[in-house]
Amino acid sequence: MKAYRLLTEEDTSAFCHKVMLALSKGWELYGDPAYGFDAATGKMRCAQAVVKDLPGTDYDPEIKLGQL
User: Which of 8-12, 46-50, 56-60 is the least confident region?
Assistant: First the structure.
């Protein structure tokens, strides 16, 4: 199975650290990052998709992606 996550955060170093943590846990970048204005908060936000192969794992909606 291939797991998928979309990491999002305000445009601060916290976003980069979130992506770096995922990469250090074996996740891989998937596609280009996205950047957009959040009108509700008045701040810029970033997003990056990441994927990770989980051999021998069946899909379960209870999987805690942040713990993989």
Answer: 56-60
